[in-house]
Design goal:
Blueprint lengths: L1 H15 L13 H29 L13 H6 L3 H32 L5 H9 L6 H11 L8 H13 L18 E4 L2 E4 L8 E6 L23 E7 L23 E6 L2 E7 L5 E4 L7 E4 L19 H26 L3 H9 L4 H29 L3 H6 L5 H4 L2 H10 L5 H30 L1
Parallel strand pairs: 3-4
Antiparallel strand pairs: 1-2, 2-8, 4-7, 5-6, 5-8
Organism: Sinosporangium siamense
Keywords: Cell membrane, Membrane, Transmembrane, Transmembrane helix, Transport
Protein name: ABC transporter permease
């Protein structure tokens, strides 16, 4: 009885004790969150997961999609010469463009901290981000035009070159090909057939030019005879409307102004001069016989800039357009990172005697390294996906030399070939290239938030 009483007492005590405390959940149930996430998950599956899975499946079939070919499409990517050129171009893009964009953005961000109109400068540099890549490609297609009158790049180059070197003024000018003409073409230069003596008039008739290409006031004139030294005239030996005598200065014929004339004695240049507006020239101090020569530079074609849209420069030219578009984006991110750097560290380094370069290299750059890495990785992803600029800027004749994986994927699938198997393989290959950098960026963001 005593044991039963004790057991009942224990049971009663246990029954009368409060239940164990359970964790209290604040907010709605996690199941309710799944309903809110469901639309996003459906869109993610329809627009990302399904296309990736289907592209992998489609890449294993031929052009028609009926014959299973396995990995043949992937093998073609690394065996075809055109595909290898495309991969090489992508490697050039990845090696050059992200680094240049990051460096230019860093320079701009540092400069904006030291100028008065920093906001206006940032606005101007960032403005290309407001323009679509397609429109940017159209802009730079005109910038890189070969004609300096239309292409800004060649207009700048020719203007700078003309400051330091004068180009040929009369390309195509030449003497007549007959034995009576007093001058002859020799290794690109025009020289007199016979040596000339002081007091003798030297006539240097040329043809091969349009009269309307010369100034209207450039009326040819024969220098007076009997004066000391050697004198002569360089002119266009063509009379508009017909008539006139060959190798003689006739009325209506025009002189060639600005032509370089050399007097040679024993094969050495003894004197140099330039023709006047009427084509006349003079060597008043010369004595003895000399050969008069018009150097080849007078007849060389003028410098018209570089062939930016040619096979050799097309990839660097497009990379330049890419930098113009994305430098503002890099500048804004890096400028935000600069603003977050503690000024105490910079001032302490300056007080300790560090130069501005040492402060920048040993303090600013290390503190900016997370931001620089984000910008650099983002630019790598953008370079791997570049399509619009290459498609618009590169002419059709040089697109094979400027081709990249994204553009080749479009050309193979929709540009006329219709090979969706190879196009799907290129899409998966591009995804494999981009995926590691995307994972690196995501990990970096999580590390910064933790």
């Amino acid at each position: 009885m005593t044991g039963q009483s004790a057991d009942s007492t224990t049971t009663g005590a246990a029954a009368g004790s409060p239940p164990a405390a359970r964790p209290v959940r604040l907010g709605p149930s996690p199941r309710l969150a799944l309903w809110f996430l469901l639309p996003a998950l459906i869109l993610l599956g329809a627009m990302v997961i399904y296309p990736i899975v289907y592209s992998i499946f489609r890449s294993l079939f031929d052009t028609t999609g009926t014959t299973f070919v396995g990995v043949d499409n992937y093998v073609a990517i690394f065996t075809d010469s055109g595909m290898l050129t495309t991969i090489r171009n992508n490697l050039i893009w990845v090696a050059v463009a992200p680094a240049l964009v990051t460096v230019v953005g860093l320079i701009f961000a540092v400069l904006t901290e030291r100028i008065r109109w920093a906001t206006a400068f940032k606005l101007v540099v960032f403005m290309p981000m407001a323009v679509s890549l397609m429109a940017s490609g159209v802009i730079f297609r005109f910038v890189y035009e070969q004609d300096p009158d239309r292409g800004v790049a060649n207009a700048v180059l020719t203007s700078v070159r003309d400051v330091f070197a004068s180009g040929g003024g009369f390309p195509g000018a030449r003497p007549r090909e007959n034995e009576r003409t007093p001058v002859v073409l020799s290794q690109g230069a025009v020289v007199t057939r016979q040596p000339v003596s002081p007091g003798q008039t030297v006539l240097l008739p040329l043809v091969g030019l349009r009269p309307d290409a010369l100034p209207a006031s450039a009326a040819a004139k024969t220098p007076g005879q009997g004066t000391p030294g050697i004198h002569g005239t360089v002119w266009l030996d063509f009379t508009p409307g017909g008539g006139g005598a060959a190798d003689a200065v006739d009325a209506g014929e025009k002189g060639l102004p600005g032509v370089t004339v050399e007097a040679l004695r024993n094969g050495t240049v003894a004197a140099t001069t330039t023709t006047a507006a009427d084509g006349t020239f003079s060597f008043p101090g010369l004595t003895g016989e000399h050969v008069v020569r018009l150097p080849q530079d007078n007849f060389a074609a003028p410098f018209n800039g570089l062939a930016w849209l040619g096979p050799a420069l097309i990839t660097p030219a497009i990379i330049g357009a890419f930098i113009w578009v994305w430098a503002g984006f890099a500048m804004v991110l890096i400028a935000a990172g600069l603003a977050a750097i503690p000024r105490d560290a910079l001032e302490a380094a300056r007080i300790d005697g560090a130069t501005e370069w040492q402060v920048f290299r040993r303090i600013t750059i290390p503190l900016l390294s997370p931001v620089l890495l984000v910008v650099f990785v983002t630019m790598i992803i953008n370079t791997l996906k570049v399509f619009d600029l290459v498609f618009v800027i590169a002419p059709g004749s040089v697109q094979p030399q400027a081709n990249v994986v994204a553009l080749e994927m479009w050309r193979v699938s929709f540009g006329g070939a219709g090979d969706h198997g190879l196009g799907s393989a290129l899409a998966i290959f591009l995804l494999v290239l981009v995926l590691p950098f995307m994972i690196l960026n995501i990990r970096r963001f999580r590390r910064d938030q933790s």
